[in-house]
Amino acid sequence: MKRFYGTELPNPLMLGTAQYPSPAILEQAFRTSGAGVATVSLRREGAEGAGATFWKMIEDLGVRILPNTAGCHTVKEAVTTAHMAREVFGTRWIKLELIGHTDSLQPDVFQLVEAAKILTEDGFQVFPYTTEDLIVGERLLAAGCEVLMPWGAPIGSGRGLNNPYALRAMRAEFPDVPLVIDAGIGLPSHAAQAMELGYDAVLLNTAVARAGDPVAMARAMMGAIEAGRLARDADPIDARDMAEASTPVIGKAFLA
Amino acid sequence: MKIVINGEAHEVAATTLAGLLEERGFAGRVATAVNEAFVPAALRGSQALRDGDRVEILAPMQGG
Q: Coiled-coil stretches, from where to where (chain B) (predicted)?
């Protein structure tokens, strides 16, 4: 498995921590699936100190922390959020989200590249949430990113990989760059497909957290990711238009 | 003086950011910004507050 800024992950599942029915179910989803990375955010703290309770539970999971800049719409906002996250979470990793469109939550790739450059210069290790555009990918790498995270489909949509053609092209274009499908996964089959395409990891949240049984779904996702990775390494056959008999023709009895 | 804390106006006695956190009972792991600029924990003691300042106090939360 490729390294992410020099760090080897135990497996290719990155799991979000939002929207679970309860903290206990969130914790169980992580423990049962074995996901090695947890995405987290920063939000306004109330006087009751909800943040401390949440953080204690996440810390006890012993996983890598990937803070996000979710909901940021400007470079300034994202850069400031990243700095605050680095201090609170004690990590240089940042999942850089710069939202450009309200309905699709499509990344604003122009601001994304600009913010990635600033943050890299500030010593961050940026995980940019981007589209499948190859030129944007190139620009992000030139800005200092060593990981790319193209969307499968809009965040929370559960539509799977909307553009497998472009995602395959991205894999081919950047063979040595760790690539993560981030967002849009709805089913384990989507996650398996991402791995079959040669992606290095899958980042998902809603598909697990909002499932009827999040713990079972987290396991299913990990199983699918593992299956997809094994399949990729096993060099799958090419699809054909016509049938090709698998049972040998030679030796068949003449009974017609 | 009046300080806007996480979007809500409060009358406070503290004159520095560190003092404000103590006065309002924020003891845990938080990050701070004043008037949309990040203030590292080490600088909270010397960060003076002025009437009308906007302070953001953020903590770890669930995220995707």
A: none
